[in-house]
Design a protein that fits this description.
Bound molecules: adenosine-5'-triphosphate, magnesium ion
Structural class: alpha/beta
Distance between the termini: 22 Å
Oligomer: single chain
Largest sheet: 8 strands, mixed
Number of domains: 1
Shape: globular
CATH topology: Rossmann fold
Number of helices: 10
């Protein structure tokens, strides 16, 4: 989908990582909301979590994942057709197009067998796709395996989400370090502490300070525990519908204004 006349050479990649259940998908959905409402489109959101659910938080249902198409490519490519052509032909089935943004779901990781070639083809196609978007948002799992699989070499901003606990902050630092092993160049690595109570406990503040000193993580900010997010989740509503008047949306808007 191309909705804006300004198309940069390739999409800026914004990736969200962190320990399980810390709020990665919530932050990804709020990031989509922010970019779309600011008109910073077109946006491609990639759900790179095997237990996909970003679609639910943005009110979309998924029929086909990239994993499904990769499987089909391995077995169904007609004789005489290059696998890459097959993949290119069908990749659109795994892209849900909607107003302002598109969503692509990676799906389950591969089963037994060799997937090197399939993944290489996939990475090349995604690199090509990225040229049509202004931003590419990747909602990861903690291990960030898809980052290497997608062959994303340059990330503009990596948001590392943590819960408000000492061990959570330490884990966030460890996850931030994983990118070094993946040989991904990350311009900004931001620690985001989510679901914080009204007053940030002093011990947590000390831990954050220590991690910021010892790693290349910068302190992004805190997102409060939000009754509006809680209610939205209970009623299974899209986070895109959260009102601009809610405290959490205002905080998150200021946060993205500062860093993007
Ligand atoms: N700031 C917040 N205030 C209230 N609830 C929140 C907040 N952030 C996240 N949640 C809730 O916490 C739960 C976990 O959030 P989310 O699914 O975004 O985490 P995740 O890191 O993507 O999890 P997973 O590792 O399973 O992918 C959800 O029920 C979500 O609604
Ligand atoms: Mg998630």
């Amino acid at each position: 989908m191309i909705t804006n006349t300004h198309i940069p050479e390739t999409a800026q990649i914004l990736a969200v990582a962190g320990k399980g259940g810390t709020g990665k998908t919530t932050l990804s959905a709020l990031l989509i909301k922010y970019l779309v409402e600011k008109g910073l489109t077109p946006v491609l959101a990639v759900d790179a979590d095997a237990n996909e659910n970003l679609n639910e938080l943005v009110g979309l249902s998924v029929k086909t994942s990239l994993g499904d198409i990769r499987e089909r490519m391995k077995t169904d490519t007609p004789p005489g057709m290059a696998k890459r052509d097959y993949m290119e032909m069908y990749i659109n089935q795994a892209i849900i197009e909607t107003k302002g943004f598109d969503l692509m779901v990676m799906g389950q990781p591969e089963g037994p067998g060799c997937y090197c070639m399939a993944n290489t083809i996939l990475a090349q196609i995604i690199e090509g796709l990225a040229r049509s978007y202004r931003y590419l948002i990747v909602d990861n799992e903690a291990g960030m395996e898809h980052l290497s699989r997608l062959n994303l070499r340059k990330i503009h901003t990596l948001f590392v989400v943590s819960d408000p606990s000492i061990r959570g902050i330490v884990t966030a630092a460890r996850i931030a370090n994983l990118t070094k092993a993946l040989k991904v160049e990350v311009r900004n690595k931001l620690l985001v502490v989510n679901r914080v109570p009204k007053d940030l406990p002093a011990a947590l503040e000390d831990q954050i300070r220590e991690v910021i000193q010892k790693t290349d993580l910068l302190f992004g900010g805190c997102i409060p525990a939000s009754e509006d997010i809680f209610q939205s989740e209970l009623q299974q509503k899209s986070l895109l519908k959260l009102s601009a008047k809610t405290e959490v949306v205002q905080i998150i808007t200021r946060f993205f204004d500062k860093f993007l």
